[in-house]
């Protein structure tokens, strides 16, 4: 399903691209011939972020392209803008006149690749025609692998639930396993009860397509990493039915699963020295005569009882069984990713990925890597005084504490109860969706946090 996004091979007729900061405009223009200087000044080129000025050659074909890089603050406010500007150039092959350098150079190159993405499963989409020669100074092969993995995540999220149910999500995981020689097992339908995954079965039992737990393993040595992704392929809210306006984007409620599959692809394509495990509880939260009900109490895989106070808080239920399984074979680092709470969106908006962890080393490493790769994250607390909010008295745990306060934190605390034995645990409460077009991130599904985690793994700072 995923697209291949790549750079162009080198060619002698590539049009040179000059990246110019505002402070460097005069120096660059001084090196140009008089006609080109006059042209650039006539058009007011000032090096503003993503500003483009094509300098005409004698044959009418551009002799060079000037692209403004703006200020550092401009680039922070609008990441990937330079790469997107390159992708938007007219049909031709282009080559950067100077090597790219460091994190900013990688962002420009990756921004170009990600700007090539189009979701065209249901309708042809016009694609950028600019071809950028693989830039010098950055690891282009790695960036292409990252872009391909991000495209997989976007494709999975963008696909509507009619074509992306639990069965299709399983098929995507199987394709990924086959591509990289990973092992995969799937527990489906009534077999979930026999295998002691009662909460996954409970949430998915009312749907026409059977719930399942996907378990993918890759790598035999190195550090152990377990990724757990929420795979709710559509969420009606169950008997606590969502209003129509809230149901419209629920095809993206498997965004956690899509993101961990994209991250897994990065890891396997890079060949990192890891023992990787990916667990995805894949379900639909539907309405039928056998839907689970508010007030019901169920026993999770680890023996804890859970009172259901809202059937629309189903994601933490399916993750609970998957995390309990992960806890039985503790990895060095366990990460869950889920489109879990509206509270996280209210707190941080659509662009920031909140994460929770008690491990200071991992938190520091992740924050640094997120800044380096322009994949913003923000740490929220496992706030111990709120533990009592998830304890209803009639059962061990409450899946939806009343009151509406600290919703993201109480959900994270709920999940942490299922991994008491893992040495390092982090939970990401992502949105998985770009609500409007932005540079290199068209409106629709988007990965969040995966590149930051991947960079921390490459740096050896996690786990």
Automatic annotation (TrEMBL):
Residue ranges occupied by any Cytosol aminopeptidase domain in the UniProt entry: 310-317
Annotated signal peptide: none
Keywords, sorted A to Z: Aminopeptidase, Hydrolase, Manganese, Protease
Domain of life: Bacteria
GO cellular component, as recorded: cytoplasm
InterPro entries linked to this entry: Leucine_aapep/pepB (IPR011356), Macro_dom-like (IPR043472), Peptidase_M17_C (IPR000819), Peptidase_M17_N_1 (IPR048816)
One GO term of the biological process aspect: proteolysis
Pfam families: Peptidase_M17 (PF00883), Peptidase_M17_N_1 (PF21337)
A GO term for molecular function: manganese ion binding
Homology family: Belongs to the peptidase M17 family.
Name by which UniProt lists this protein: Leucyl aminopeptidase
Lineage of the organism: Bacteria, Pseudomonadati, Pseudomonadota, Alphaproteobacteria, Rhodobacterales
């Amino acid at each position: 399903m995923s697209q291949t996004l790549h750079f162009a091979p080198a060619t002698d007729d590539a049009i040179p691209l000059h990246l110019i900061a505002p402070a460097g405009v005069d120096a660059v223009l001084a090196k140009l011939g008089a006609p080109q200087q006059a042209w650039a000044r006539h058009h007011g080129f000032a090096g503003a972020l993503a500003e483009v000025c094509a300098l005409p050659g004698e044959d009418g074909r551009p002799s060079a392209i000037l692209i403004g890089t703006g200020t550092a603050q401009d680039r922070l406010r609008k990441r990937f803008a330079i790469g997107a500007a390159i992708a938007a150039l007219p049909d031709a092959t282009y080559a950067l006149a100077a090597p790219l350098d460091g994190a900013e150079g990688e962002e420009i190159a990756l921004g170009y690749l990600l700007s090539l993405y189009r979701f065209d499963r249901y309708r042809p989409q016009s694609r950028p025609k600019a071809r950028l020669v693989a830039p010098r100074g950055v690891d282009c092969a790695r960036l292409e692998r990252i872009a391909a993995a991000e495209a997989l995540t976007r494709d999975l999220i963008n696909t509507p639930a009619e074509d992306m149910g639990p069965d299709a999500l399983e098929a995507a995981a199987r394709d990924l396993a086959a591509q990289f020689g990973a092992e995969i097992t799937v527990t489906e339908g009534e077999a979930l009860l026999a295998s002691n995954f009662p909460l996954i079965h409970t949430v998915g039992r009312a749907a026409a397509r059977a719930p399942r737990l996907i378990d993918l393993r890759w790598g035999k040595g190195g550090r152990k990493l377990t990724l757990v992704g929420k795979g709710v392929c559509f969420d009606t809210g169950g008997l606590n039915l969502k209003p129509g306006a809230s149901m419209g984007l629920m095809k993206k409620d498997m965004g956690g699963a899509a993101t961990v599959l994209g991250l897994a692809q990065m890891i396997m394509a890079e060949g990192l020295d890891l023992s990787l495990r990916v667990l995805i509880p894949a379900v639909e939260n539907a309405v039928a005569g056998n839907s689970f009900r508010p007030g019901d109490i169920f026993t999770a895989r680890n023996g804890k009882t859970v009172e259901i106070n809202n059937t629309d808080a189903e994601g933490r239920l399916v993750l609970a069984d998957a995390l309990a399984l992960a806890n039985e074979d503790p990895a060095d680092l366990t990460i869950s990713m889920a489109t879990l709470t509206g509270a996280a969106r209210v707190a941080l908006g659509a662009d920031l990925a909140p994460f929770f962890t008690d491990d200071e080393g991992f938190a520091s490493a992740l924050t640094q890597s997120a800044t380096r790769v322009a994949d913003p994250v923000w740490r929220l607390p496992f706030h111990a005084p709120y533990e009592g909010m998830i304890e209803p008295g009639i059962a061990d745990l409450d899946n939806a504490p009343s009151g509406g306060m600290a919703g993201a934190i109480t959900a994270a605390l709920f999940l942490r109860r299922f991994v008491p034995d893992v040495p390092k645990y982090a939970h990401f409460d992502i949105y998985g969706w770009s609500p409007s077009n932005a540079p290199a991130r068209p409106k629709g599904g988007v990965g969040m946090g995966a590149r930051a985690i991947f960079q921390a793994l490459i740096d050896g700072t996690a786990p």
